[in-house]
Design goal:
Distance between the termini: 56 Å
Helix content: 25-40%
Order of helices and strands: HHHHHHHHEEHEEHEEHEEEEEEEEEEEE
Strand order of the largest sheet: 2-1-10-5-6
Oligomer: single chain
Radius of gyration: 31 Å
């Protein structure tokens, strides 16, 4: 355990000299995420929510602790074999770091390899303290000592065995204590240095003043937010906005060093933008609701915010890009993040007139780091995994036949418009309201189509139309309410929505894989 702790602590310190993402826990965790079957990932998000990454890292530490114990037992019997086992884990960590999508140098292997080497040497030293041989004591004088009352009467001193095996208790404790203290110091130093690496990015965000927008969003209609306790706020606060991604370490990108390259098929005028270049463009402000494809029916991974950014379609047009319907050779736009994530969006959707953005602001403030600072992409009406690239650095025009982005390689659909959905926010499942008028309320969404109607059913009764809150835009969710005359006993409340195309939310439940969950949300309550 001490050797394993030392290995991780040294690796953390070395990663501060290379890059935080090269830390073995992060590298192995990222590799585990990449190789996790979609069904398992879906299960993790469903049960652990946004804490899934913390659970993964804790799981890795538990596994490493168990392996460390096993190697320790082996090392007591075969010291070299135990040390070689530690080195093997260093090779695994180094390989994981080198095979990450964002790895660009062999130095990414250094933290794991260096840490494993230190851990192996410490294990060898500690085991040595456990297997030292005590020198045999000198043989006692066989002649009686007249001054000794025992030997004077012919008794003999206790015999000792030459070369008796023992262990250096004091040496072991001193070595172990020193190793633990040094490891703790190395780990703390590594954490501190890794934190300091992002200070330029933190400063660039703190100093950023978002420019005035050329096209501000219209004021939110007064009736868009219902005065019903328990219903989700119409605008989701930045701190409450859902976060689902694969980044174990949130990238901290310095806005002053940020660049975006646009290139690929049909790009007649390739472009590289700086952050200042983007801010000098005509910026627009829009209310847009985002939804994660991992959102179960009635789930929490949906949120609405006011975004500020530049129109992506305008940028593409300046680069000479045409839609497939307009004769362009590319039908897929592949966005790449600084952490190696790739997200593919249909060119036709990005350039069909909807407010596809390269966003720099969220709810009046610069983007939070967790949500993509300095720049992220978003396309109304498409699930995040095919549109919402955070920490974007590259846009390549290609075709769906030529390239499969990250999630498509893992059996998710290449095209994924957001499905018409609705959710009951209040009353909560298993609530116990009193008989009488009970306000049933929630939200419904069908981005880029709009919500036309919401209906509620009590048990197996008829569908009854709910009251809709005022609509902001077709790209935002819409609140609804229904005054239910509740009677005593157990009841099942179900909701369904109809969008502006006339599509009615289906009652057939499907999983989130491969293109989003479908079905109607219901809650069970008991009326007292």
């Amino acid at each position: 355990m001490l050797a394993g702790f030392a290995a991780l602590a040294v690796a953390e310190s070395v990663s501060a000299l290379v890059r935080p993402e090269a830390s073995p826990i992060i590298a192995v965790g990222g590799a585990a995420i990449d190789r996790t079957p979609p069904a398992v990932k879906d299960w993790a998000i469903r049960h652990f929510g946004t804490d899934d990454k913390l659970v993964l890292q804790l799981g890795i530490l538990v596994v490493l602790a168990l392996v460390a114990c096993a190697l320790g037992v082996l090392a007591v019997r075969r010291c070299r074999a135990g040390a070689l086992g530690v080195l093997l884990f260093g090779v695994i960590g180094g390989t994981a770091a080198l095979t990450r999508p964002d790895s660009t140098s062999w130095t990414d292997a250094l933290p794991s390899v260096t840490g494993a080497l230190c851990g192996a040497l410490l294990l060898y030293a500690l085991v040595g303290r456990l297997s030292t041989t005590r020198p045999a004591p000198s043989a006692p004088d066989s002649r009686p000592d007249r001054d000794d009352p025992v030997t004077a009467h012919g008794a003999t001193a206790p015999a000792t065995v030459p070369g008796e095996s023992g262990w250096d208790r004091r040496g072991f404790i001193v070595t172990a204590t020193a190793a633990a203290a040094a490891s703790a110091g190395a780990g703390a130093l590594g954490r501190s240095l890794n934190g300091a690496r992002g200070q330029d990015a933190v400063a660039s965000r703190a100093n950023l003043v978002l420019p005035a927008v050329a096209s501000p969003a219209a004021p939110i209609p007064k009736g868009a937010q219902l005065r019903v306790p328990g219903v989700s706020p119409f605008v989701t606060a930045n701190a409450d906005f859902y976060r689902v991604d694969t980044a174990l370490v949130v990238p901290k990108v310095d806005a002053t060093a940020w660049r975006l390259r646009i290139h690929g098929r049909g790009v007649t005028r390739p472009m590289t933008l700086t952050f200042d270049d983007l801010l000098r463009r005509e910026l627009i402000e829009r209310d847009i609701t985002l939804t994660c494809v991992s959102n179960e029916v009635g789930g929490p991974y949906v949120g609405n915010a006011r975004w500020i950014g530049a129109r992506l379609a305008d940028l593409l047009a300046e680069c000479g890009v045409r839609t497939p319907s307009g004769g362009g050779p590319a039908d897929q736009l592949v966005a790449r993040s600084v952490d190696g994530m790739t997200i593919g969006s249909p060119v036709e959707d990005v350039m069909d007139g909807r407010d596809a953005l390269l966003a720099v602001g969220m709810n009046g403030r610069p983007l939070p780091f967790e949500h993509g600072f300095p720049v992220r992409m978003l396309v109304p009406g498409l699930y995040g995994y095919v549109s919402a690239c955070k920490w974007i650095k590259d846009i390549e025009l290609t075709t769906f036949d030529a390239y499969d982005p990250y999630w498509v390689k893992r059996k998710w659909a290449s095209r994924a418009p957001i499905k018409t959905q609705s959710r009951i926010d209040t009353p909560k499942p298993f609530a116990r309201p009193r008989a009488g008028t009970v306000m049933v309320a929630g939200v419904a969404w069908a981005q880029h189509r709009g919500i036309d109607k919401v209906e509620v059913r009590i048990d197996d009764g008829r569908w009854q139309e709910a009251d809709l809150a005022a609509e902001d835009t077709v790209d935002t969710w819409r609140q609804w309410s229904f005054p239910w005359q509740a009677t005593r006993g157990g009841h099942t409340l179900t909701v369904r929505a109809t969008d502006r195309t006339g599509h009615v939310q289906t009652d057939r439940r499907t999983r989130t894989i491969p293109d989003g969950a479908d079905g109607r949300h219901s809650v069970v309550v008991t009326v007292d």
